[in-house]
Design brief:
Helix content: 55-70%
Strand content: under 5%
Radius of gyration: 19 Å
Number of domains: 2
Shape: globular
Length: 226
């Protein structure tokens, strides 16, 4: 069975050095974001800037849980560099957009912001809690070698990916910068046409008929739709 699918090494490995570098780079991004908010660099909407920083901090805490508790596969250095660059783009970039770097004035809070908050926390829940459910199930030795089909994963095979798309839609909505929707759109396209097909191929090789049965009766990404 191939251990590398879609440019990701799925071999189980602690990769502690890569993980510590990865989380250190992410922490540095958080520090820069905090400095921007505190120093007022390009800040015209202070309240919105603090909310967006809060989104980044929550995402950072979830990243710690993912790296050091949930993730068992090996992390390659290219993944560390590539995703860290992506974090700079959306954590600092969306902070500056929402803080008014282009429109240069504060935007009154409205229903869009309420929806943005709901989507961000809903997506975070779907992503992290689904992973926790799977982790707890797999910790039971009686489930060794079995495909996980319960909990939130009973609603969609890749409900964790769907959670990412949902939370990033909320994150972008909070900026009130509509062209920034290219970010969750790019994520959705990459999941549908790249990551999911590659991951499904790997899972079919790993779990065989059990995964095939699960795939035939379960939506792939979006519950009840796709």
């Amino acid at each position: 069975m191939k251990e590398n699918k879609g440019g990701i090494n799925r071999q189980h490995n602690s990769s502690l050095k890569q993980k510590f570098v990865f989380i250190s780079l992410h922490a540095f991004i958080i520090i820069i974001s905090l400095y921007i908010v505190l120093d007022g660099i390009g800040i015209y909407d202070n309240q919105r800037a603090w909310i967006l920083f809060g989104f980044s901090f929550i995402y950072f805490m979830r990243h710690i849980i993912t790296l050091f508790y949930l993730l068992q596969r090996r992390i390659e250095w290219g993944e560390v560099v590539g995703l860290s660059s992506f974090f700079v783009l959306f954590e600092i970039g969306l902070l500056l957009l929402g803080a008014g770097v282009f429109h240069q004035h504060a935007i009154a809070f409205d229903w869009i912001d309420s929806m943005a908050l709901i989507l961000f926390f809903l997506g975070s829940y779907l992503n992290t809690y689904s992973e926790l459910q799977r982790k707890w199930w797999k910790n039971d030795l009686r489930n060794k070698g079995k495909v996980y089909t319960k909990g939130l994963f009973s609603h969609a095979m890749h409900i964790n990916f769907f959670g990412d798309v949902v939370l990033f839609i909320g994150w972008v909505m909070m900026t009130h910068t509509w062209w920034a929707f290219f970010l969750p759109l790019f994520m959705l396209v990459s999941f549908v046409f790249f990551h999911i097909p590659m991951l499904d191929e790997y899972l079919l090789e790993r779990y065989g008929n059990a995964f095939d049965i699960y795939a035939k009766k379960t939506k792939k990404l979006i519950p009840r739709l796709y």
